[in-house]
Design a protein that fits this description.
By secondary structure, the chain is an alpha+beta fold. It is 53% helix and 17% strand.
Length: 247
């Protein structure tokens, strides 16, 4: 019996030693790596485009940022928000890669807006990383992105209020091809350089027409305007969805 307990003790000790010699390895997360890599990429991009403003250099700078960040693609993040910001930032770089040639090309204004829209989204992401996660950049670069982020967020809030102002109005058909309504500027701000796009949708949730109203001059806060949308057909609709176009 003593021999049995002795052998049992040897077996248990062996199991314990094996378990201790093979501890479960912790998964390495890349939260800090992301902050360091984005800082490195932004500083290098800034240096490149400062020295040369041609589109080829811009493309190379964008690719540098992409390749720098792709070092941690598919790896684990501890913080879910940082992972989301990482993925969103790569998406914006992809948009810029596809539209880099339109950075200063106002002849193709739609594609130019796409590129600049990506710059605005990057500004918001970078500002969040600076404020919440300690991203370090040179002062000029940091100030640029934070200032643009504030401007973009403010514009988005105004656009949201514009849509709310239009959505509460009961628009009516003045005739077969004109839809009218009196809209009050309830944003608290003077508005200019914007258009309101109206999508006319029927009872089957099918868009039957789209029209645009351009804000001529300055639309002062609390000013009421008689808004007209011109249709291309006399098809009936049941609701209108609004969006804002910035120029």
């Amino acid at each position: 019996m003593k021999k049995f307990f002795y052998l049992l003790g040897v077996v248990l000790t062996s199991i314990t030693l094996v378990a201790c010699s093979n501890p479960k390895q912790e998964v390495k997360t890349v939260d800090n790596d992301f902050i360091e890599l984005i800082s490195e990429g932004l500083e290098k991009r800034y240096s490149m485009v400062t020295e040369s403003e041609d589109s080829k250099t811009l493309f190379e700078a964008i690719k540098l940022e992409q390749n720098n960040l792709k070092q941690i693609e598919g790896k684990e993040f501890q913080n879910p928000e940082l992972k989301t910001l990482y993925e969103k930032y790569l998406e914006q770089l992809k948009i810029q890669e596809e539209n880099y040639m339109h950075f200063n090309n106002l002849d193709n204004y739609e594609r130019h807006k796409v590129f600049m829209g990506s710059y605005n989204e990057r500004s918001k992401i970078i500002s969040t990383l600076i404020d919440k996660y300690g991203l370090k950049l040179n002062q000029k670069l940091s100030d640029e992105f934070k200032a643009n982020s504030v401007m973009v967020i403010s514009s988005e809030e105004i656009d949201k209020k514009i849509i709310e102002s239009f959505s509460k109005v009961k628009f009516y058909k003045a005739d077969s091809y004109i839809v009218r309504g009196d809209v009050k500027n309830e944003t608290g701000e003077a508005i200019q350089n914007k258009s309101i796009s109206a999508k006319f949708i029927n009872k089957d949730n099918i868009t039957v027409d789209v029209s645009e109203y351009y804000i001529n001059g300055v639309w002062e806060a609390d000013e009421v305007r008689n808004i007209e949308f011109y249709l291309t057909s006399d098809k009936s609709f049941d609701k209108i969805e609004f969006s804002v176009i910035n120029y």
